[in-house]
Amino acid sequence: MRHAIPESKTLLSEMNIEVFCTTDDLTSSLETHEQAESALDTDVRPTWGLDRALHIGRNSWHTFVDQLEHATDTATSSFLGFLEAFEKTHNFRRPRLPGERLQPRAVRNASGEPTTYARHLSARTRGTHARS
């Protein structure tokens, strides 16, 4: 986005775009969102990107949970801690979303139940990988 700002500003202006939404991972500090917001002459809002959180059957999910724990400074080894970390990411974005909550819809298949999340979190704590 940095290199295309003049073109982006022109396009957004010509198309009368009033609101531009960025897709931001739950672990994001929103730095790139803030860069876009300061560079564009339109209302720029972050979304609550859940994609990585919903792929619990993948090995990358454990990396995501580690990053979520680090980003929120919240222990995610229990289901309750995992939910608390989620809540912190939502609350972090809340001031940037006056009156609205935005979430991109890019996940094709989301499966799982609280017991599945708990099993994966428990396996993560033990250093193993749970089977879906």
Describe the protein in words.
This protein is mainly α and 132 residues long. It is built from 5 helices and 2 strands. It has one domain (2-126). It has helices at residues 5-14, 31-39, 60-72, 79-93, 114-126; strands spanning 19-25, 43-49. Helix 3 crosses helix 4 (79-93). The longest helix is centred in the middle third of the chain and has 15 residues, at 79-93.
H-E order:
HEHEHHH
Low-confidence stretches: none
Roughly how many Å is the radius of gyration? 17 Å
Extended strand count: 2
Side-by-side strand order of the widest sheet: 1-2
* Spatial separation of the terminal alpha carbons: 37 Å
Compute the number of helices. 5
What is the domain total for the residues?
Answer: 1
Using the alpha-carbon principal axes, give the shape: elongated
Beta content: 5-15%
Estimated helix fraction: 40-55%
Structural class: mainly alpha
Largest sheet: 2 strands, parallel
What kind of assembly state do the chains in view correspond to?
single chain
Q: What number is the mean pLDDT? A: 75
